[in-house]
Amino acid sequence: MRPQAPDVAELKRRALALLPQLRERAVEAETIRRMPDATIADLHRAGLFRMLQPKRVGGSEAPYRALVDIGSIVARVCGSTAWVLNNLACHHWILAMWPQAAQDEIWGGSDGPDVLIGSAFAFPAGRAQKAPGGWRLKGRWPFSSGVDPSRWNFFGALVEESGKVPESRVFVVPAKNYSIIDTWHAAGLAGTGSKDVAIADCFVPDHMSLAVAEIAGGPNPGSAVNAGALYRLPTFSVFPFILSGVALGIAQGAVADFTQSMRARAATYTGRRIAELATLQLRLAEAAALTDAAEKTMLADCDEATALAEAGGEFPAEARARWRRDGAYTTQMCVKAVDLLFAGAGGTALYLSHPLQRAWRDVHAASAHFVVNWDMAGTLYGRVALGLPPDVPVL
C-alpha cells in the first residue's frame, strides 16, 4: 500500500525545515550554476516536487496556490532553488492533462513518479510537422530551468503546414532525444541551470503532444484519469503565479534579512543607531506592505481560478487577462520592495556575503521572464478590457 502523500500543511513544515541547508548551499548553487545534487535529493525526500502531482500516482494534489505558499517559503533563502522547484513541480501538474498513455510512460518509467520534467516554452524557437503516427520536431530553445536533473522535457513549438502556422503545440520528449547546451552564465537566478536545449530532428508520438488549445481550461485528455479541478485550470493563464511566488519569497526574505540586520546596526560614519532613522523605517514599512499586498493578490487569483474550475464553468477572457496582469504586477511590487531595501542597506549590501545583493539580482532576473513582463501583461489586459482581441496566442 502506497504511503499517504503529505498535505499542504506538512509540505510547508518540510519546506521550512529545509531552509537552513538551502541557505547554506545558495553560494554553491550560484558557483556551479545549477542545483546541487544534495538540494535535489532534499526536495525529493520532502515530497515538494510532487506537490501538484495527482494522488492516484502518489502525489499530494495540493491546491494550485501551493506554488505560491511553498515556493515563497523556499525563495526566502534561495531564489534559484525556489525557481527550479516551482518549475519542475508544475510540470507534474501539466503532465496530468496529457493522455493517460503519456502519463503512464513517464511516471511508470525507470525513475517512477519521482521523475523530473523540464520545459522550454519559447514556442517560436521550435517547429513541428505532422508525420504518420506523430510529429517531427526540431529547434533550439533557451531558458530550460532545472534541465540537468530532468529526464524529460516539455517543448513548445509552432506547427508548420503548407507554409502556414495553424497552431501552437507542446511536446514531451525524453532526454536521449535532446542536447543540453551550457549557456547559463547569468547575473541573477544563477543557480537555476537555465540552459539552452536543442533537437536536431526527432519523432514525437501523437500521445506525447497536445495543442495549447487543449490545455486552455476545462476538460482535457487527462480528465479521464485526473478529474480534479486542479487539472482543469487554464495552463498559461495562471502560469504567472509559478514565477511570481518565487519573487514574493525573495522579497519576503529580503524584508526579514533587512529587519534583522538593521535592528542593532550603527552607521559606519556617524555611529548613530540605524534603526532610529525615519527614512529607513519608511523603507521597511513600504517594502513590507508591498510584499503583503502582493501575496494577498496572488493567492486571491489562484483561489478565484480554482473556484471557477470547481464550478465547471467558463474562464472569462477578462479573468484570464487579469490573472496575467496581476502575476506581472505583483512581481513588480516585489522588485520594488527589494529595491527599497537594497538602497536603504547602504554599502554593506554590496558584499557578496550579504543576502540582499543576491535577493536584488534574483528578483530582477525573475521579473525578466516574459510571462511576468509588465509591458506584455499590462497591454494584454488593456486590450481585453477595451474590447480588442488578445494578442497572446497562449492566453
How would you characterize this protein structure?
The structure is a single chain. The protein has 3 domains: 8-114, Orthogonal Bundle (Butyryl-Coa Dehydrogenase, subunit A, domain 1); 117-217, Butyryl-CoA Dehydrogenase, subunit A, domain 2 (Beta Barrel), CATH 2.40.110; 235-385, Butyryl-CoA Dehydrogenase, subunit A, domain 3. The longest helix has 34 residues, at 278-311. It has helices at 8-24, 26-32, 37-46, 66-75, 79-95, 100-107, 235-238, 240-262, 278-311, 317-344, 355-367, 374-385, and strands at residues 117-120, 126-131, 134-144, 152-159, 168-174, 179-181, 195-205, 209-211. Strands 1, 2, 3, 4, 5, 6, 7 and 8 form an 8-stranded mixed β-sheet that branches. By secondary structure, it is of the alpha+beta class. The mean pLDDT is 95. Helices cover 46% and strands 13% of the residues. The chain has 12 helices and 8 strands. A hairpin with a 2-residue loop joins strand 2 (126-131) and strand 3.
Tell me what the CATH architecture of the largest domain is. Up-down Bundle
Stretches where pLDDT is under 50 for at least 5 consecutive residues are none
- The level of helicity is 40-55%
Category by helix and strand content: alpha+beta
Question: H/E order of the elements?
Answer: HHHHHHEEEEEEEEHHHHHH
Strand content is 5-15%
Supply Rg. Answer: 21 Å
CATH class of the largest domain: Mainly Alpha
Distance between the termini: 41 Å
Number of domains: 3
- Tell me about the biggest sheet? 8 strands, mixed
Q: What is the third-level CATH name, the topology of the largest domain?
A: Butyryl-CoA Dehydrogenase, subunit A, domain 3
How many E-type strands? 8
Overall pLDDT level: 95
Indicate the overall shape. globular
Q: What's the CATH H-level superfamily name of the largest domain?
A: Butyryl-CoA Dehydrogenase, subunit A, domain 3
SS element count, helices: 12
